[in-house]
Amino acid sequence: MSETLFEQPGLVTGGPQALIDNSRFLFFIGLAVDAMIFAGLVGAYFVLRGGATTWPPADLPHLHTALVARSIICLAAAAILLGISVIMQNRNALKSMRASLLVAVIALAGFLVLNALEWESLLSNGIPVRTVFGGIYFLVTGVFHLHILACMVYILSKYRWTLHWRRYTRSALSYLHLSYFVSAMLVIWLGIFGVIYL
């Protein structure tokens, strides 16, 4: 009696294999484009700093370095918590994964609140929005805040997905991509903070 080898449907036996995950490739391309945009905006401050005798310029309202520095802690905490959520996903610990996602949203909300306080202080003290400094400042920080807000909405939508998950569900790379994204945002914010505030 001879053995017969049956080919399973969808099993590639001799053809070329896909070496690149399309979703991951597009994600990193988008992240690289985003980083280049922020690099161009932050680069404008290098020009301003190069021509200024003192930094920040004396005719500008006081920049609250300590206040914005606390926002770095919030953003770093969110990046760490999203990394933990990926670990919990791989371990099928859904309760811990959901908890880390929610706390990450709270940390990102804290980031936005601290930066909103900085905006309120600068606007109330008469920062010249139409000057080069004020215009670029509100542009670069405002675009960054929109990224964080969109990230919060996306995390909450993904959290709703997890409520329908059962044990041993490991699908979706989106949580890993979220972790990468917030970590990249942390690096970009450190650059923004270092150039504008220090």
Distinctive features:
about 70% helix; about 200 residues; elongated; 5 helices; mainly alpha
Task: Report on the architecture of this protein.
This protein starts with 21 loop residues before the first helix and ends with a helix. The longest helix has 31 residues, at 94-124. The protein has helices at 22-51, 65-90, 94-124, 132-162, 174-197. With 198 residues, it is mainly α.
Main sheet overview: none
Question: How many strand elements?
Answer: 0
N-end to C-end Cα span? 80 Å
Share in helix? over 70%
Mean pLDDT: 82
Give me the strand/helix succession: HHHHH
Assigned CATH architecture: Up-down Bundle
Quickly give the structural class: mainly alpha
How many domains make up the coordinates? 1
Q: Please report which band the strand proportion falls in: under 5%, 5-15%, 15-25%, 25-35%, 35-45% or over 45%.
A: under 5%
SSE blueprint and pairings:
Blueprint: H1 22-51, H2 65-90, H3 94-124, H4 132-162, H5 174-197
Quick rundown:
Helix content is 72%, strand content 0%. By secondary structure, the chain is mainly alpha-helical.
